[in-house]
Amino acid sequence: MLPLTVLGIETSCDETAVAVVGEGREIRTNIVLSQLDEHAPYGGVVPEIAARAHLDHVDGLVRRALDEAGIGLGEIDAVAASAGPGLIGGLLVGTMAGKGIAWAAGKPYIAVNHLEAHALTARLSGDVLFPYLLLLVSGGHSQLLVCLGVGRFVQLGTTRDDAAGEAFDKAAKLLGLAQPGGPAIERAAQGGDSDRFSLPRPLKGRSGCDFSFSGLKTAVRERVEASSPLGPDDVADLAAAVERAVCEALVDRTANAVAWFVRHYPEGRTLVAAGGVAANTRLRSRLAALAAGAGLGFVAPPPALCTDNGAMIAWAGLERLRLGLTDGLDAPVRPRWPLDPQADSRKGSRR
Ligand code: KG4
Ligand code: ZN
């Protein structure tokens, strides 16, 4: 049998992205169109603007992706689209496009969970076997999960308030830096003194694997108000303090999860980081050290595959297609779609 090839469409937030990925893990094309400029005047993503921008661009990007990959629709084995969680307008645009193309080409359609796509990207970029421990940190989610297989996740912890990426984005706003805040803070922090401003490490030293970041945001606001107007050195030092505080909080919670994981899954070999925040260099090196200390390998996809992209959707579709997990054209979009639906009812019984 010929190796499989899948077209992937991502429209769950503010990136319109389309990719073609092959079963041999080759990314034949991966186009990401950011809507940053459209949302910039509003200081955050405006769902209605996002949906309209996806609608304007998705067809053209699919055409371009197929051209760049040098492949016709007839040679694609399935069409995968991000069906949730995310902003409903964008999800509707992407899944309708995916369904339309699948129907016209007579190929299977696959409704991909955006979080599962982040989770499985480590298997596109590297040789990672199940089970593995995953720190999933993006603009909307902060979770620690055990990945047992495709569609099989056990949640160990989640955020009680803001996501890690949100903490970066909100702090960047307070510091007058551009969005998305994570990369802006990482850049501004270079050369900054992370010791000058003390910031809290929410939940640090406590048991469990949950996160909390809202206290950090409040503390940043207070420091900014106390030091206003901020000069370039103040911004660099505050950015360095924010980056360090978020990373230390994430590593502290992940350390608890690692201890739990090696006890319960001794066959597990790997700590994986995924999602936009996993693009952060400081976080990656700290997680690598944590994993090494516990005898685990550490894998994080290259930064361009950590932030939202179409290749992760195509790859998750490919993993599903291989298992025969395709969807009907009546498959819904799911603005809320947890990876581990039983997590809430099990709360407290694990860790
Ligand atoms: O996964 P993603 O692209 O979109 C969501 O699914 O949310 O993640 C976006 C988030 C944003 O909050 C952004 O500030 C953060 O990831 N991010 C980073 C970095 N690059 C992106 N955070 C810290 N350091 C980075 N280098
Ligand atoms: Zn994402």
Question: Can you put this structure into words, describing what you see?
Answer:
With 351 residues, this protein is an alpha/beta fold. The chain has two domains: 5-120 and 305-338, ATPase, nucleotide binding domain (Nucleotidyltransferase, domain 5), CATH 3.30.420.40; 130-303, Nucleotidyltransferase, domain 5 (2-Layer Sandwich), CATH 3.30.420.40. It is built from twelve helices and ten strands. It has helices at residues 36-39, 47-69, 88-105, 114-125, 164-174, 181-189, 214-227, 232-264, 281-293, 303-306, 310-322, 343-346, and strands at residues 5-10, 15-22, 27-34, 78-84, 109-113, 132-137, 142-149, 152-158, 270-274, 297-299. The strands form two sheets. It has a five-stranded mixed β-sheet with strand order 3-2-1-4-5, sandwiched between helices. Strands 8-7-6-9-10 form a five-stranded mixed β-sheet, sandwiched between helices. α5 crosses α6 (181-189) and α8 packs parallel to α9. The chain is globular. Bound molecules: 5'-O-[(R)-(carboxyoxy)(hydroxy)phosphoryl]adenosine and zinc ion. 5'-O-[(R)-(carboxyoxy)(hydroxy)phosphoryl]adenosine binds at residues 13, 138-140, 165, 168-169, 180-183, 186, 275-277, 279-280, 307-308. Residues 114, 118, 138, 275, 308 line the site of zinc ion.
* Proportion of residues in helical segments: 40-55%
- Side by side, the strands of the main sheet go 3-2-1-4-5
Query: How many DSSP H or I helices?
Result: 12
Q: What is the terminal separation in angstroms?
A: 44 Å
Radius of gyration, whole Å = 20 Å
Query: How does the overall form come out from the CA principal axes?
Result: globular
Could you name the CATH class of the largest domain?
Alpha Beta
Content of β-strand: 15-25%
Per CATH, the architecture of the largest domain is 2-Layer Sandwich
CATH fold title of the largest domain: Nucleotidyltransferase, domain 5
- Taken in chain order, the helices and strands follow as EEEHHEHEHEEEHHHHEHEHHH
Number of structurally distinct domains: 2
Mean pLDDT: 96
According to DSSP, the number of beta strands is 10
Q: Flag low-confidence runs.
A: none
Which ions, cofactors or small ligands are bound in this entry?
5'-O-[(R)-(carboxyoxy)(hydroxy)phosphoryl]adenosine, zinc ion
